[in-house]
Structures are given as C-alpha cells and as structure tokens.
Amino acid sequence: METHVFFLQLLSILLGARLMAELAIRVGVPAVIGELMAGVILGPSLLGWLEPTAVLRLLAEIGIILLLFEVGLDTDVKRLANTGVKSVLVALGGFFVPFLLGFALAFYGFDLPLLVALFIGGTLTATSIGITVRVLTDLHRQHSHEGQVVLGAAVLDDVLGVVLLALLYEFSIGGGVSIVNASKVLAFVGAFFLLAPVMAKLISLLVSRFDAVSELPGLIPTTIVSLVLFFAWLAHAVGAPELLGGFAAGLALSRRFFFPFGLALRSNEQFSERIETQMQPIIQLFTPIFFVMVGLSLNLREIDWSSVFIWSFALSLLLIAVVGKFAGVLLIRERRSLRLIIGTAMVPRGEVGLIFAELGRVSGIFNNEVYAAMVIVIAATTIFSPLAMKWLYERLDDAPPASSGSRY
Amino acid sequence: METHVFFLQLLSILLGARLMAELAIRVGVPAVIGELMAGVILGPSLLGWLEPTAVLRLLAEIGIILLLFEVGLDTDVKRLANTGVKSVLVALGGFFVPFLLGFALAFYGFDLPLLVALFIGGTLTATSIGITVRVLTDLHRQHSHEGQVVLGAAVLDDVLGVVLLALLYEFSIGGGVSIVNASKVLAFVGAFFLLAPVMAKLISLLVSRFDAVSELPGLIPTTIVSLVLFFAWLAHAVGAPELLGGFAAGLALSRRFFFPFGLALRSNEQFSERIETQMQPIIQLFTPIFFVMVGLSLNLREIDWSSVFIWSFALSLLLIAVVGKFAGVLLIRERRSLRLIIGTAMVPRGEVGLIFAELGRVSGIFNNEVYAAMVIVIAATTIFSPLAMKWLYERLDDAPPASSGSRY
Lengths: 408, 408
What we know:
Chain A is an all-alpha fold. Chain A has one domain (3-395): Na+/H+ antiporter like fold (Up-down Bundle), CATH 1.20.1530. The radius of gyration of chain A is 21 Å and the shape is globular. The first copy, chain A, contains 16 helices and no strands. In chain A, α5 (84-109) packs antiparallel against α6. Chains A and B meet through α1, α3, α10 and α12 of A and α1, α3, α10 and α12 of B.
C-alpha cells in the first residue's frame, strides 16, 4: 500500500471515530456505539471508502490489547478474586446455554448439518470483552461490583470461546474432538494466568531500575509496549486469546497488584504513575482503531434483506443470544437490577463472534445466508447492549451510584 | 501476516533499538547509531530475523513524520528565518556539487550510461534530515546557531532531492526533463510551506475549542496525529516529501510560532503544553522503528566485498559525498569550527539516499554492483557523520556550549 493512501485511511478512522463518538454522547448513547457506526459508515456497508486491510487489522489488534492492558492496570486483583465465584457462574452459564440452544436451533429447528450447527453455537458463546469493558467505562461503572463480575466473566468466557474454537476447528478438518487437547489448553491458560503477572512484575521492576539510570528519553513507551506485545504473544503461544496477554501485563503493573503469599515485591508508586501517564495517549490513539475495525468488518450490504430464512433464523438466534447470557445470571445471588445489568453487559458478541463467523465462512462451513444471519446477530447484540445498559442504569432506582474511585 | 508474528517483530524492533541505543551511549556514540545497528543486526545483513515488511515500513513512516513534527514543534520560526540565507547557500552547494561530481565520476570516470550516472548523482544529493536531526538532539545541539542552519538546509535539500527524483524518474520512463514541471513542483511546495502552517494553526485552534467542551478523553492523541497525517498527505499531494508535512504541522503548533503580518491568532500556551506532553510518548514509541528500518533496509550481505569495481567506485563516491556537502559551507561566513560541524552534519544520506538507490534498483537502472556501491556510500555517510560530529564537538575548543534553552 502506498504511504499517503495509508495515512488518509488512518486519519479517516481516527477522525471518524472521534466525530461519531462525540455525536453519540450528544444524543445520549455510549461513545463506543459512535465508533462502531463510524466503521459501518466508512466501510463496505455504506460509503465503501475503507476496507479492513491487513495493516489496519494489526493496528486494531494492538488497540484492543492495549485497551485490555489499561483494564488490567485499573483492576484490583483482590476485588476481582472476591467476585470470582460469581464471575465463574456467569461465564459458564452464559457460555454453555447459548452454545447448546444455538446448536439445537440450527440442527433440529433448521435442519442444518452437524458441523454448521456446532459453529453456529460457537459463534454465540463468547462475549466481546472489548465492547463490554468500553461500555462500562463510558458509563463510569468499571469499578462497580457488577463491573467486576462482568470483567471476570468476560475474561473466562473468552478463554472458553478460544478453546471451543480450537476444538471445533480440529473437528472440522477431520480430527476428532479430543478432551485431552482441551484440558491441555485449559491447563496452559491456567498456568499462564498464574505465572504471567509474576513474570510481568519482575520485568517491570527491571525496567524501573533501568529508568533510574537511563540518559535516553522514551524508555517507558517502548519497553512497556514491548512488554504488552510480549505477553500477547505468550498468551497466543499457550493457546489463550492474545488480548488476555495484555490484561495479564496490566494486572501485574497495576498499583493494586499484590503477589500471592505476601511476597515482598512492593510496587514503586511513582513509577506506576508514570507508566499510566505515558501509556494513556498511546492507548487512546490505538483503541478507536479497534472499534472502527469491528464496524468495518460488518458488511451489511452483503445481506439479502428480503430473505425469509435469514430473518427468521437471525431473529431466533438473536433471542437465544440475549436470553442465553442471562442463564448464568440466574445462578448467582444478586439484586434483580444488578442481574439485569450483568446479563445485559454480557450480551455483545462483537469481535469474537466475528472471528468465529469469518472462520466459518472462509472454511466453507457457513454459506452466505448463514453468515448473513450471524452478522445480523452479532451487529444487533453489539449495538443493543450498550443502549440497554445506559437505559437500565438510568431507570433502575436501586442501581448503585457510579463508583467515585475511578481515576479517569 | 499473523498477528502474533507481527507482535514479535515489533517488540524485537523496539527492544533491539533500546538496548543498542543504551549500549551506544555507554561506549560514547550517539544513540541513533545504536538504533541503526539494531536494524543491521536484526535484518538481512546479519541475523536475518526481520525484513522490512510493508507494515513495518508504514509504521516507520509514521515514526519519521512524527519526529519531524516534534522538530517543528521545537523550532523557532523567527530564528529559522534569521539563518535562512545561510541555510539556502548550504543546501544549494551541498545539493549541486555532489550531484555534478557524482554524475561526472560515473559518466566520465567509470563509463556508465547517462541515466545510470544521473541517478548516481541524485542518490548523493539529499541529506537525511531524520539522522541529522537526531544526531543534533542526541548531542543537545538542536537549538544552537549551527543546528538552525543545518535544519533549514536539510529541509530545503529534501525538497530539491524530491524534485530531482521526480524529474529523473520522468526522464527514465521516456519523458523529457521539463523545466516547467520542475518549476510547478517548486511553486506548489513553496505555497505549501506558506499556507500549511496557517491552516494547521487554524485547525489546532478548532481542536483547542473542542478540547474545552469534550467529555470524552483522548482528544489530543487522535486529532493531533490525524492533523500530522493530513499534512503529510497534503505534502505528498503537492509533490513535497511527506515528512515535511509533519514538520509544517509541528511549526504551526509550536509555542514560538507567529503569523506573518502580526496576525492576532495567539497560541493557547496551556494547550501547546498539553500537546507536547501527550504527543511525546507516541513520538518516542514510533521514531525508533524508523531508524531500525533504515538499518534493516541496508542489506550488507548482498555486497560482493571482494569486487574491485565496487570498492574503487564506492570509495570515490564516498569522497564526493563527504567533500560535496562541504561545498555549501564554503559559501557562508562562519567560524572554521562551525563550518566543519555544519558540513559534517549535512553528510548522512540515510533514508533519502536509500529511496533513490532502491528506485534505481527496482527500475533496473542500477545493476547489483552499482547498487552495492551506493549502499556502502549511504551506510558509511550515515554512520560516519554522527561519530565525526561528536568528535568535533569534543575537540573544538571554540565550539559554543550546548544550548541551555532545550526543553528536553
């Protein structure tokens, strides 16, 4: 690609995201909806000015990983552990119920082949952690109790989604489904989550030593971004989603991070603060690219809007996609209002669903009609959830106030 | 490219650049030499781990444009105008003398065809503004009198280089050399330099208004990077080098920028300061990618080190490349020590020379031997100049002290 063309693409993404996000706020909608719409407008769905090119995709990936890094940086491990059991229940319920119901609808209801039905179920499983986290932040609820439950559940959910994707992919290319492989991946991911923060912490201590003696400016931006990229790569290497590497690195560098067993590696408060100040502009630069890319990847023009099959199939799946995520919420003890909010927050499928659907299409498992239905479901859940959450927070009198401990 | 592979490439560039730059400082060499060496080591010349891929090239381009933005931000237009005549003389002398001598050597001395000889002369013309500016900054001399002369000369030089490249390219594909076209490009570039800062200033005032009312964080990183990309694109559109668009945008946003005719658009001091603070980490993240890419692009392994032609040709050209840049310095009134420093600062050919050489190779004008000789010349000038400048500053007793007005 020619440089000046790329510059024009990148600046239309950045400015488009900004303009639409500001507009969204003005009309009372979460900013992330504006950024998604910028992608829909600029992309093949409407104007057709931009396509999700390889370069933009890589920049978007950096964006989502940096966003998860920031979420990690901003997370209190202790509080996350406190809500752990609830998160596990929400994740498991919201994973298995949409998978099984989606599969059953496709296989029994619409007579689709076994593999197709399995992939459809899979597409419905994973919550989009990026969208969910952004909505909570846009509404200033990222530090709330329900925010913690959702964050933990979305992380687990993503791990389960990737494991399922790996299994289904193996199955689709002729290998059987192996429980041994699945357990291996889960064990690796578990080990990663225990060890990665410790490793990241040790590296960051090294960097902070170096910071004291280096004469060259710019240590933090280059080394911390490298650290995040390294853990994203490591996450991929053990079979976990890359963005969780960013989350693990963020957790470790958080001011609220404590080692288990009370290990005496105290954080350098001032260094943590400098990391936050200097990483912030970089994160703010990259993350909108991700959300615009999600919008760009939804090609609404490819959908045959007059097809009865597509509509009936999409609407039934949409029902399952929404209701299924509330299944997990029924397993936990919580006020009705918080249950509604947690369930709604888990609904957006965003980029994870798109990865499933794209893989389904590229490998020939999904035909155009099934793919179109999946795109409708993904788009609807992604746009519905932020709107519904804002509405819920405004209506429910017994909702807790916005957390005041937010640093942003 | 797969995401995790890209992450690994990017992090090895960032960490490699950092490690080698720190090492360079420890052994008393400017940091930029370390970053170039990181590219040579990681690239095809030595380890072969990395190649200059399309994505990395685009990120590197962003890096050099942001660096020039920072240089502009840090430039006092008045002082630049004061040294203007000297800069013009240094630029003109250092452009025409290497071009003519290089051409003559190739055409008469080595009996090479006309077009080849013209391209060889062209490759010797343009100073690498990126390397030159970095070396001055590494040595804390970017605000000195000689620093201003060099900066102005390097900017003009780059414009002349691009105009020459356009002319030679046209000539090579069968069109004649047209003075009308050349004048048109020069007129456009002139208009760009008069109007771009005014436009950028107006846009930045708009952004600062917006900044006061926006509820969404991250306005500065996205809009200022967009502004820089836009001016880089605009520079390309009028036929100027893209990085000069970054420079123009930086000039306009500088705290020391004044409109001609005393126009009363005063800068908002506080806003300028926020731009600097927030852009700094982004600039520091991207610029090392550029210098590593220059190192990656030098494939020293392709050179047949035993060829007598390559060595004799390269060494004669190297002599011309160094001596030729001192031609401009003879035209100005300056102390001997400053003349030496200004001449030396203009020597590195870096990325501009590589663009010429690459175009020559791809279009079949340069055969492998000529290309190899050009690579030797470019590498030698790029590495010689920073070392020589450091040496000169240390040895020359009458050299002025490091500027104390630096903000970095």
